[in-house]
């Protein structure tokens, strides 16, 4: 009985081993690819990485960096929104600069008030006081002269009636009164002449300097509002209320680097592709009049014919590998720009990477 059980167990193990061998050695059928890899449609075509971007007269998207530093106070637009030239995009906290501007405005206004005061001289009230002082000096002189005349007539009649000391005092008093009258007359003339021309010129320069300081401060205050430099679409917005920005841009926690505060482009129905041709393949690039190319959209079987627009004639480092300015690479590329008709059945967006093959007619 025991041998019979062992025989049955052995037979079952053999069957299980054969079934396992058959199952695990079976080759699964290959899954059909979701899309075919991009194939070179030209006999001697050049492969290049391409990036889709909006069409601009200057050739590139508009990267906006603030000219001042500070925390973001308001965000007035959203990504994908169409804006007009001069429309405010966001504001940076300007409380300190606004107070400084108001202070300089007040200083300029005070300088202007002092300048107008100098130009308006003499005041009628001040001139009236100077005229009264002249009249008083004239009266004092007449009184002194009359007193001297009486003393001299008495002395002429009887020299003993007036002492020499009194007569000398009367003569001195007349001279003092005469001098006081001349001083009063000159003071009246000085008051009537108004402010000195050099004082007016100095105050004019003070007012001009303070006005320019106020104008410069006002212009700087305007920098705290970031405005659209042209009509277009907000592609990216690296700002949120309270985040700190500077002329280096805004910090991106994902790439751990500084990026433009705002990137603007044209509406997405006007797109182009910028193909980066490796420097070792540049010599194979055909004459511009014979260049033709095709763009292959990654993840699809869609390929789009391209129309040559131009070459950006500067071989630059290829920084698009990780989109990091700090990245150091040895590869240098020549940017070639193409236009294309946007396909109806595929969504395309600025910044999307594509495969490009460049050939010759």
Structure notes:
- With 361 residues, this protein is an alpha+beta fold.
- It has 3 domains: 31-55 and 266-361, Elongation Factor Tu (Ef-tu), domain 3, CATH 2.40.30; 62-92 and 224-265, Beta Barrel (OB fold (Dihydrolipoamide Acetyltransferase, E2P)); 122-194, Helix Hairpins (Orthogonal Bundle).
- 39% of the residues lie in helices and 25% in strands.
- It is built from 5 helices and 17 strands.
- It has helices at residues 2-24, 95-120, 124-157, 164-193, 197-222; strands at 46-54, 62-64, 70-75, 82-83, 88-92, 225-227, 232-237, 244-246, 249-252, 257-259, 262-265, 271-278, 291-296, 303-311, 316-317, 332-339, 353-360.
- A 6-stranded antiparallel beta barrel has the order 1-12-16-14-13-17. It has a 6-stranded antiparallel β-sheet with strand order 6-5-3-8-9-10, with no helix packed on it. A 4-stranded antiparallel β-sheet has the order 2-11-7-4, with no helix packed on it.
- Helix 2 runs antiparallel to helix 5 (197-222) and helix 3 runs antiparallel to helix 4 (164-193).
- The longest helix has 34 residues, at 124-157.
- The mean pLDDT is 86.
TL;DR of this structure?
This protein has 361 residues and is α+β, with helices and mostly antiparallel strands.
Secondary structure layout:
Layout: H1 2-24, E1 46-54, E2 62-64, E3 70-75, E4 82-83, E5 88-92, H2 95-120, H3 124-157, H4 164-193, H5 197-222, E6 225-227, E7 232-237, E8 244-246, E9 249-252, E10 257-259, E11 262-265, E12 271-278, E13 291-296, E14 303-311, E15 316-317, E16 332-339, E17 353-360
Antiparallel strand pairs: 1-12, 1-17, 2-11, 3-5, 3-8, 4-7, 5-6, 7-11, 8-9, 9-10, 12-16, 13-14, 13-17, 14-16, 15-16
Helix pairs in contact: 2-5, 3-4
């Amino acid at each position: 009985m025991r041998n019979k059980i062992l025989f049955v167990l052995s037979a079952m193990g053999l069957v299980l081993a054969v079934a396992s061998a058959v199952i695990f050695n079976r080759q699964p059928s290959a899954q059909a690819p979701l899309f075919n890899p991009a194939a070179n449609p030209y006999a001697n075509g050049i492969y290049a990485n391409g990036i889709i971007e909006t069409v601009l007269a200057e050739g590139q998207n508009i990267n906006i960096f603030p000219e001042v530093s500070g925390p973001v106070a308001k965000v007035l637009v959203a990504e994908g929104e169409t804006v007009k030239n001069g429309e405010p995009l966001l504001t940076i906290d300007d409380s300190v600069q606004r107070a400084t501007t108001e202070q300089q405005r007040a200083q300029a206004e005070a300088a202007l008030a002092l300048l107008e005061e100098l130009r308006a001289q003499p005041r009628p009230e001040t001139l009236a006081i100077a005229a009264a002082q002249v009249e008083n000096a004239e009266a004092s002189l007449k009184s002194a002269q009359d007193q001297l005349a009486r003393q001299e007539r008495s002395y002429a009649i009887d020299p003993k009636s007036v002492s020499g000391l009194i007569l000398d005092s009367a003569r001195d008093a007349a001279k003092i009164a005469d001098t006081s009258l001349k001083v009063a007359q000159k003071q009246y003339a000085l008051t009537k002449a108004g402010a000195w021309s050099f004082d007016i010129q100095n105050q004019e320069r003070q007012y001009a300097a303070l006005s320019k300081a106020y104008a410069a401060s006002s212009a700087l205050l305007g920098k705290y509002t970031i405005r659209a430099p042209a009509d277009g679409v907000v592609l990216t917005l690296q700002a949120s209320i309270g985040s700190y920005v500077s002329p280096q841009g805004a910090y991106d926690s994902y790439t751990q680097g500084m990026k433009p505060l705002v990137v603007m482009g044209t509406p997405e129905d006007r797109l182009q592709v910028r193909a980066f041709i490796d420097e070792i393949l540049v010599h194979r690039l055909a004459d511009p009049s014979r260049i033709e190319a095709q763009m292959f959209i990654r993840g699809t079987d869609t390929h789009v014919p391209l129309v040559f627009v131009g070459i950006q004639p500067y071989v630059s480092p290829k920084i698009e590998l990780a989109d990091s300015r700090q990245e150091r690479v040895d590869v240098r590329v020549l940017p070639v720009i193409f236009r294309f008709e946007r396909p109806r059945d595929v969504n395309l967006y600025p910044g999307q990477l594509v495969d490009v093959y460049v050939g010759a007619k």
